[in-house]
Automatic annotation (TrEMBL):
Domain of life, per lineage: Eukaryota
Cellular compartments annotated: Membrane
GO biological process, alphabetically ordered: defense response to other organism
Gene Ontology CC annotation, any one: plasma membrane
Keywords from the named record: Membrane, Transmembrane, Transmembrane helix
Protein name according to UniProt: Uncharacterized protein
Bilayer-crossing regions: 35-58
Length: 225
């Protein structure tokens, strides 16, 4: 029997399905990874939008401080070439604190106030009671700062400035109120934040005359949180 017709015939080439399946598997994995990342990105984006909306709706406003009245009950200065210069003062201020937020209540704690002249304190810091303000609420405090004959060491420039104010009948002072505040809006609570209010005012001053004092002009208060 002749084998010439089959001797040179090669077996058919068998193409393996392995590489195709591996390529398809990798494509499926890449598609699944893209889908997962797209889902995560969508969730993060949605959470950011919700947080922004809640912030815009419930964001608190800075409290507003207003000096309503003042009283001067002591003001003595001492200066000597042989000793330190000092001031002993007793000044009372009535201060209104307003929470302008219509959606958030405000709680104040660790408040303290002192009087500043030309960048130097002329009274020791005096603690104030805690204060709670409801939404769009207003409260008032009337601290007496200094007093008791307690002297505060100051520079000669401060003593000279206060003595000049007594001579001219008016002196520029700064009331400083510092503490912390936190807000509550529905289920949301903010952390405690530092709050500092500085009220610039001009007070009528006559040497040896004590009692209710006249505030000249409109005192302005700036608030930092």
């Amino acid at each position: 029997m002749s084998t010439e017709g089959t001797a040179g015939t090669e077996p058919p080439e068998i193409i393996s399905e392995g590489p195709r399946r591996e390529k398809a598997r990798r494509g499926n994995l890449a598609g699944a990874a893209r889908a997962i990342w797209c889902g995560v990105l969508a969730v993060v984006l949605l959470a950011g939008i919700v947080a922004l909306v809640l912030y815009l709706v419930y964001r608190p406003s800075k409290p507003q401080f207003t000096v309503l009245g003042a009283g001067l009950y002591e003001l003595n200065t001492s200066s000597s070439s042989a000793g330190p210069t000092a001031v002993s003062a007793s000044i009372q201020f009535t201060v209104s604190i307003h929470n302008p937020s219509a959606r958030s209540s405000a709680s104040f704690d660790r408040l303290a106030a002192y009087v500043d002249f030309n960048g130097e304190a002329i009274t020791q810091p005096s603690p104030l009671p805690p204060l709670y303000l409801s939404r769009d609420g207003t409260g008032a405090v009337s601290p007496v700062l200094g007093g008791g004959g307690v002297s505060v060491s100051v520079s000669p420039a401060v003593v000279n400035g206060l003595q000049a104010g007594e001579k001219y009948g008016a002196v520029g002072l700064r009331l400083v109120v510092a503490g912390r505040v936190k807000y509550k809006a529905g289920p949301f609570h903010s952390p405690w934040r530092r709050v500092n209010a500085r009220c610039e005012l001009v007070m009528g001053l006559n040497k040896g005359v004590y009692g209710p004092a006249t505030l000249l002009g409109t005192p302005g208060c700036s608030v930092d949180i």
